[in-house]
Amino acid sequence: MTFSNWYSKIPLLILILANTLFYSCSENGDAEDMDYGPISVGKDLSIYLNGRGVMMQAFYWDVEPRFEWWNTIANKTDEWAVAGIDRIWLPPASKGQSGGYSMGYDPSDYYDLGEYFQHGTTETRFGSRTELDNLIAKAHGNGIEVIADIVMGHNSGGGLQYNPYRDKDTYTLFNQSHGNASGIFNRNYEDYHPNSIHAMDEQALFFEEQDLCHLQPNVQNGFWKNENSVAKYYKNTVGFDGWRFDYVKSFNAQFVKAWTDEVGGWSVGEFYDGNANLVRQWMTGSGINAFDFPCLFQMKDAFLQNDLSTLETGDMLWKTDPDKAVTFVANHDTDREPVIKESDKLYAYAYILTHPGYPTIFYSDYENIEFKEKLNTLIYINRTLAVGGLTVLFSSNEEYIAMREGEGANPGLIIYINRKASKDTRTVITPWINKKLHDYSGSITTGLSTDNAGSVSLKAPARGYAIWSLN
């Protein structure tokens, strides 16, 4: 080929290369330069740091390696503190019936935090008491609060005893020889349903024969009233800062309120239901925060049905109770058969980390190498630009655009989610007059400008999202 023939083909080669680069970026939602213009450099967002953080659910179901989990988490608290994690939610720390295989949701001895040999092991699945103490100290040294998972609805692993209320033997005897080696907060059949007070509480029975009766004085004293109650021991001696209450549907909200009124601490309840009004009723009765399951299920529907307008119209806790709604994308229960598909999780995280509510990150998602950098960026945006009221600017089957209106000198942000297989633009009106904009998600490399009416044609990558704010 002569030089002149080769030179004549340069424009075609450039076009082929440009198309190749464009489509490879668009497919995975990574950074793409739609106009091939000058690279935009955003401003330093640290001036907007607001002191807020996000919570990390610091476990998944059947964590490995067994007996090393407290050490594993302790070693991550330095990194997590830098990322903006201000609370870690630990699994139930006490000995369960399954011993070294227990995830803690089959509680037997609330005071055995890896100190007594029972159920075939001294350490819990997560490690020893000493290792738990070290983890809590390490977290506190990094400015991170530690949240205890409290299972107060049912027990497992007790000894057999004759139960006159059932006219048979039941596993309801908990003492030093039967599943309660600590000898503190011993229990018997009177502490479970049915008993001399009533047949059952107003909620559905859960683990029917070991369903705790919270009206019994022994149960109230053991859980929160005594000076060495579970609540006071965990807070004042062990060093936990707050509570996540497990499966609160199985007992009345008044007992969560009694616990937190007695000892305080940041608290959240697992009212596992997509009906936002039912969750709100529970929050009113308990007086504490709740996980935003309605938001989770609305996001699921939006993505599965390919209708992002659901994100605008669906009833979610954060829309009425932003200060009490704990938003999340996955947890140890929902991720075993994922509610949000892996391919949709970054959309969901982009949504909760730019919207009102207190977001939670799931350990397995954060440790996913494909997600980690993007999640760190979203967490930083949450801690800086995600402030002020929220207005939805546009929603359709495959697009969702919403604005956080900012506060004071903080301009807020606009998030643009695009599920189309190609890049997209959408003209919206903003309060930003004749301003330069930058995509702080890193998806779009070129900047934009608003006109003298605040109008701008926003851009979003294929199957991805962009988060625009002032440059």
From TrEMBL:
Required cofactor names: Ca(2+)
Keywords attached to this entry: Carbohydrate metabolism, Glycosidase, Hydrolase, Metal-binding, Signal
E.C. code: 3.2.1.1
GO MF annotations, alphabetized: alpha-amylase activity
Classification via Pfam families: Alpha-amy_C_pro, Alpha-amylase
Signal sequence segment: 1-23
Domain of life, per lineage: Bacteria
Metal-binding keyword on record: yes
Residue ranges constituting the Glycosyl hydrolase family 13 catalytic domain according to the UniProt record: 53-382
The keyword rRNA-binding appears for this protein: no
UniProt xrefs under PANTHER family: ALPHA-AMYLASE (PTHR43447)
NCBIfam families with a match to the protein in the record: PRK09441.1-3
Family, similarity comment: Belongs to the glycosyl hydrolase 13 family.
Protein name: Alpha-amylase
